[in-house]
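Hi everyone,

Forwarding the result from last night's run.
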Amino acid sequence: MIGKFFRKMTGATQSPPRVSGMEVFWSWLGSFLGIAAVAYLNDGFLEKTDLVLIIGSFGASAVLIYGAIKSPLAQPRNLLGGHILSACIGVSAWKLLFVHPWLAAALAVSVSIAAMHLTKTLHPPGGATALIAVIGGPKIHQLGYLYIVMPVAAGALIMLAVALVVNNLAPTRRYPEYWY
């Protein structure tokens, strides 16, 4: 029984081939412009406010929507739905369980994964978005449910707009694969 368990960890296929230099360039350009747009708006316009526009989970979203554009996890429904749904769950977990942050963190992530599965919006960075709502500190906690709109929805929409433009400039790329 133990041998069978460990055999499952050996893998069943080979690693995919490398992508072309042009594919690397377009991934780089999209991620640079997407994160730059969100970070510029954050630093240029929100620096002196209690609002924030950029969160760590957007880095992981950039990998998907600019670097793995054909993945089901990178499609607009998943990007927006996964982040927004997970933000709702993360804020709710914090508000209900702030006296037990470890429990709020675990529930925020696990409930977000289940909810994303059930709504067909699985987006791995959504788990981080839920977790950030719990561990993000006073500035994030003060936002309350505004966290869902700003930074989460607004930032994801900006990154999606950049993805729609940059990913379709390249003659060999097409994004999205589907919307719904």
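The radius of gyration is 18 Å.

Cheers,
N.
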